[in-house]
Amino acid sequence: MKALSFVLSSVLMGALLFAEEKPSVPKLSPGFEKLKTLTGEWSAKTEDGQPVRVSYKVVSNGSAVMEMLSMGKGEGDMVTVYHLNGDNLMLTHYCSAQNQPRMRAEPVTGEVKSLTFSFLDATNLVGPDAGHMNRLAVNFLDKGHFTQEWTWRENGKDAHTAVFQFERKK
């Protein structure tokens, strides 16, 4: 009887030691949840009237939001991936300039009406003065409209801000 108790308790202890840990559920981020509401297709125009399309998709088991931006000037598609890093809402922008700026959002309290992302670092950036996206402001207007303000930085200063007023495609 003692031997059986020993064997059973050993098996139980082994099962507990080698049990697969379930991944912890990330904390909810109001800003990240707001980005998820953009899922779908949107359209806008550039300053010179060229069409701009953007689509959003929640990917990677809900842990990321992928944005695909198509400009009307033949610059090719650009991808931005939004995700959480602990308590920080982050993005990586895969730019047509062939660099990848990473930005962190400023913390949001209360209702999320806007998100402002600021440059953290970049991959494939040839130097600190090389042109890159430095800031993104997203303003949520209503369920069918939002704006993006992308700021380009070059030679140590903000050189241009492109503003897009998106409307949800029906």
Mind explaining what this structure looks like?
The protein has 170 residues and is mainly β. A hairpin with a 2-residue loop joins strand 4 (77-85) and strand 5. A ten-stranded antiparallel beta barrel has the order 1-2-3-4-5-6-7-8-9-10. It has a single domain, classed as Calycin beta-barrel core domain (Lipocalin, Beta Barrel), CATH 2.40.128. The chain is 14% helix and 51% strand. It is built from two helices and ten strands; from the N terminus they run ααββββββββββ. The model is unreliable at 10-19 (pLDDT under 50). The chain has helices spanning 2-17, 30-36, and strands at residues 40-45, 51-59, 64-70, 77-85, 88-94, 100-105, 114-123, 132-142, 145-154, 157-168.
* Number of contiguous helices: 2
CA distance, first residue to last residue: 72 Å
Q: What is the residue-averaged pLDDT? A: 87
What is the level 1 CATH name? Mainly Beta
CATH fold-level name: Lipocalin
Keywords:
170 residues, mainly beta, Lipocalin, 2 helices, 14% helix, globular
Question: Gist?
Answer:
Helices cover 14% and strands 51% of the residues. The protein is mostly beta strands. Mean pLDDT is 87; it is low at 10-19.
Note the topology.
Layout: H1 2-17, H2 30-36, E1 40-45, E2 51-59, E3 64-70, E4 77-85, E5 88-94, E6 100-105, E7 114-123, E8 132-142, E9 145-154, E10 157-168
Antiparallel strand pairs: 1-2, 1-10, 2-3, 3-4, 4-5, 5-6, 6-7, 7-8, 8-9, 9-10
